[in-house]
Amino acid sequence: MYFGDKMKFKLLLVIFAVAVAGVYAQDIPPFTEDCRTDVYPPPSSETKVDTFVLNLDLAPEDRWTPLVKNKTGEMKAMIQDIIDLVGNFVKNETGVVDWINEIMAPIADTLPDPYQGEIKGIAKATGIPLGEVVLYNIFYEIFTFCTSIVAEDKSGKLYHARNLDFGLFLGWDTKTNQWELTERLRPLIINVDYQMKNQTIAKAVHFTGYTGVITGVKPGVITLTMNERFNINGGYLGLLQWILGDHTGHWVGFAIRDVLLDAQSYDAAKDYIVKSKLLAPAYFILGGSKSGQGAIITRDRESCAEVRSLNPKNGTWFLLETNYDPWTSPPFFDDRRTPGTKCMNKLGYDIMFQSEIL
């Protein structure tokens, strides 16, 4: 698919607008550092998440149809929020919608299988313009503020936990005391059971309509989460290279899904993550099934910057990653690492966790 110079410029402008608008939309309320051990699992009556079986034996275009048809309204609302975010920055929402549908739709034809077919199938099933569905998927590639922890207790049992701090982008609702974006995302959360020939291959937590994975598990083999990494050589450059015709890099969310479906061991998954060329820098938090199998893999787009591994015998019984390089201090305005580390140390290696997250 050929992108003319004018279209490339429009695409770059939209990507830049989304990135900058996301930063300036932050509205962080006061917070405390109290350690809590009574919030998971939450009350099932309030936060029950349904499970959807993704049948990998179906054609890619048909796999998500039963799910997205029932979530079309919620998806449209979320996409409108993204459009509003960009529109507020460029002061021309109508123009943004036109640009999105003009320049994002052709990207679908360049995506690898099966993601190309799945995204097109979602657009067809929901009636949402293809360009907007592509933008919806790119949004999750670019913005994934998170905290991930992989830990091992004294008995050698492994645990992997994460949260998505998406609320930073669209501000704090003072009327409901909730993050606005969080409330928009909540009804889109779905547990996905990847099956082939009626057998579970992997499981992941999705936002309905997003075909990649940022949180997943291959039962008995690995657990894997991804956190965004801020870097001058960032994902917008990888995306621009993709538009210009360089398709040698892997979309991060697609890469995680591929690892979950294909990897047969912790070492194989780790090797893939360390060596693959990516469109965006990221932190991969990997867990296995045996003592000591846990790592934070800090990735640049084209190489691995660092690997930190669990080593309980030497005192490293947990690893915690937010969105900043482990060897640097986090910024004072977004220091989730310090309270997280304090609470893990307060919990202690001798105390066995009460429930498994992944």
3D structure, described in words:
This protein is an alpha+beta fold. The model is unreliable at 18-31 (pLDDT under 50). The strands form three sheets. The chain has an eight-stranded mixed beta sheet with strand order 1-6-7-8-9-10-11-12, with helices on one face. It has helices spanning 5-24, 44-47, 65-69, 72-90, 93-103, 105-108, 115-126, 130-142, 180-185, 235-243, 252-262, 266-275, 337-347, and strands spanning 51-55, 146-152, 158-164, 172-173, 178-179, 189-196, 199-207, 215-218, 222-228, 282-287, 294-299, 304-309, 318-321. Helix 4 crosses helix 5, helix 5 (93-103) packs across helix 8 and helix 7 (115-126) packs across helix 8 (130-142). Helices cover 38% and strands 20% of the residues. It has 13 helices and 13 strands.
Assembly classification = single chain
| Basic shape | globular
- Largest beta sheet: what is the strand line-up? 1-6-7-8-9-10-11-12
Continuous helix count: 13
Write the element-wise H/E pattern from the N-terminal end onward: HHEHHHHHHEEEEHEEEEHHHEEEEH
Share of residues in helices: 25-40%
Report the sheet with the most strands, covering strand number, pairing sense and barrel closure.
8 strands, mixed
Task: Report the span from N to C terminus.
Answer: 39 Å
Helix-and-strand structural type: alpha+beta
Q: Can you count the beta strands?
A: 13
| Overall pLDDT confidence | 84
Unreliable segments of 5+ consecutive residues: 18-31
What does the radius of gyration come to?
20 Å
Strand content: 15-25%
